[in-house]
Amino acid sequence: MSAFRYELEPVDESYFDSAPMHWRVGLELAAGPDEVWAELTSPRPLSWCRALGDVHYTTEAPYGVGTIREARVLGAYRMREHFFRWDEAERRKSFYATEGTLPLFSSFAEDYHVVPFDGGSKLVWSFAFTPWQGLDSALQLGRPLTESMLASLVKDTRAHFGPLTEVH
Is the pTM higher than 0.85? Predict the structure, then answer.
């Protein structure tokens, strides 16, 4: 029996603006755009993020639209992800989750876009989700936990690639 028991709804790029809960973070990094993109598309992306125990592609390289990835979040929650956008030239990729191990979301998506920036690069990282039906208020109450986890991803990414400017 598969650990993934809960199906999530597919979305498209418009979801990053229309989802009931969404965040967009711009990280100015000391590493160049090619280095950041290479690590985001490596066989073990995001390995530097403490909140993510295991993130790996189940699809063989080369990766692109249709690639499948699995991720473990905070040790307990696992999700299977389907990449609906993968643009090497633009250094941009987006996925929506297809399945999860707990009924937390009815839909969930992330977008990564790496652009050149003076002295390094900027990673524009977007997160969007719709709570599972009936969990709306619970997830609203859990918003500080969600924002704390996102802050951890941002902090770990800045530490890994080096911040372009000192963050206070």
Answer: yes
